[in-house]
Structures are given as C-alpha cells and as structure tokens.
Amino acid sequence: MLMFNGKHVVSRQGLGARIKDDAPDVPDRKMTSDEEEAKRIAEMGKPVLGEHFKLEVIIEESYEFKSTVDKLIKKTNLALVVGTNSWRDQFMEAITVSADEDEEDTGEERLPSCFDYVMHFLTVFWKVLFACVPPTEYLNGWACFIVSIIIIGLLTAVIGDLASHFGCTIGLKDSVTAVVFVAIGTSVPDTFASKVAAVQDTYADASIGNVTGSNAVNVFLGIGMAWSVAAIYWHMKGKPFVVEAGSLAFSVTLFTIFAFLAISVLLYRRRAHIGGELGGPRGHRLATSAFFFSLWFLYILFSSLEAYCHIEGF
C-alpha cells in the first residue's frame, strides 16, 4: 500500500507498474520525473535471469591450512598443559605412567605401552626431582625459573664430576673426557629442546638459535664468570692466576673450522630445491645429518689423537 497525491494506491507489480487509484480510469499520461525515477529504481531491484543460470560449487579441503590450524591448536593445548597450579599436580603427573603424546591421535584414549612403562621407571627419579620445582603460578613464574636454573646448574656440576671420575677410572685424559662425556651430558638437554623447537616451530630460528645461544652462554658467561671469580680470588691472596693453555689452541682452531663448514651447509640449504636450513627432501635431510655427525666424530677423533700426542698440536 502506497500513498500518492493523498490517495491510497495499490500496486501488484511494484513501482514499475502503472499507478492506479480509486478514481475512474483515465487515459495514459506522461509520468513525472519522480515517477520515472521510482520506476527506474524498481527496475534495477528486480531479479533478472542472466546468461548463466546454473552454478556448481565445489568445496575442497586445504591440507596446508588444516595442518596450520592443527599446529596452532597443539601449541595452544601445550601452553595450557605446561603450567601447573600446585605441587600436588606436579607430583601426581611425575609418578603417573602416561602414553606418548607424540604419536598420532586416533580420537580414543590410548593406554601406555610397554615402552612407556620402561621409560617411566628409568626417568621417574628425575621426574620426582623436578616436581620439587615451584609451580608456575607462584610469583608469576619467577620462582619456577630461578629454582630450575639452580637445579640444572647443580646437576651439570654433578655430571661433570661423574664424567671426570669415569674418565680417570678407565684411564682417559681430562681433555678427552671433557670433549666426549662432559660435552654429551651437558648438551643432551639442548639437543631435545632443539628437536622440539624444530618440530613445533615454523622457522628454524628457535632450534638453531637454541644451540648457538647455549654455546654463547657457556663460553662468554660460564668461562668468563668462573675465570673472573678465580682471578679476583687469587689477586686477593696476592698470587698470580695462571692457567696453562694445554690443547686449547688446537681444539678451538679445529672447532672454528668445523663451525665454518656447518654454517656453509646451512647457507647452501637455503636454495630453492631444498627449502631451508631444516627439513627438505629426504635425501638432503639424511646427507645433512650424516655430515654433521661426521664433523662431531672427527672433532672427537682429532682432539683425542692430539691429547695422546699422535698428532702434533700448536
């Protein structure tokens, strides 16, 4: 129902139809500009059957997008699980045998396997030990961070002493024990942290940066702070602080050469046919892993040969 010139107007065909009122039929007359504008607008809004009157919609799943969403959900769930509210939760989690979370989730609750039980009983001591760390809720996580650093430092000192005693028992020199057993014992946590970062992170920054950052802390902070304390102590005693170089020059030179080779490989892996520092085609992955293992083995071999005077050092 519309109003036109103060009268009720009924139109069954929209504004584009001829306007009628309750007055007697009148001859066709020329429409005003307002009426022409209303008709034009009405014509524009009418549905019109075009040339293509059929539409086929195909919905395809984007595996790349699905993989990205799954990784984001996994990271979110992991972030929620890492934090704990009480020591009770930590100790309950430490003494409970749980299934491996890295395996594919089938939607059903998976029972622990025999391997899970074996690994649990092998690591239960360390689980209970680190369950003593304050929960992340305390002091906004600072209590957890500080106590964790202290425990890791104590464990590193114990591992170093045990490795030295082991080397002395089997007749190895301290330099060989240091580059083999002590290095392995203190680098295993970094290895697992880099592995987790390589799996969960989109880029290689976290995994490779974890290794380089750890070595930077060991060299600059660990050696620098320890030598500074020792130098201050002997200076207060009125005695000079002297440390013989031993095979340090040979080991550092060898490490520098191998580090240059490793960085060259990482730069080469940035080519388009490989894709990046980590991952890539299976052949390149295996070749890179074998090359890095060979560098580590050669470093231990040459350092040991120099320590036992089979190779002349400098």
Would you mind describing this structure in some detail?
The protein is mainly α and 314 residues long. It is built from 9 helices and 2 strands; from the N terminus they run ββααααααααα. The chain has helices spanning 33-45, 63-82, 87-95, 114-131, 142-170, 174-200, 205-236, 248-268, 282-307, and strands at 2-4, 7-9. Strands 1-2 form a two-stranded antiparallel ribbon. Helix 5 runs antiparallel to helix 6 (174-200) and helix 6 runs antiparallel to helix 7 (205-236).
What is the distance, rounded to the nearest whole angstrom, between the alpha carbons of the first and last residues? Answer: 105 Å
Rg, please? 37 Å
Poorly predicted residue ranges:
1-23, 102-107
Shape: elongated
Total DSSP E strands: 2
Which helices and strands appear, and what pairs or packs with what?
Elements: E1 2-4, E2 7-9, H1 33-45, H2 63-82, H3 87-95, H4 114-131, H5 142-170, H6 174-200, H7 205-236, H8 248-268, H9 282-307
Antiparallel strand pairs: 1-2
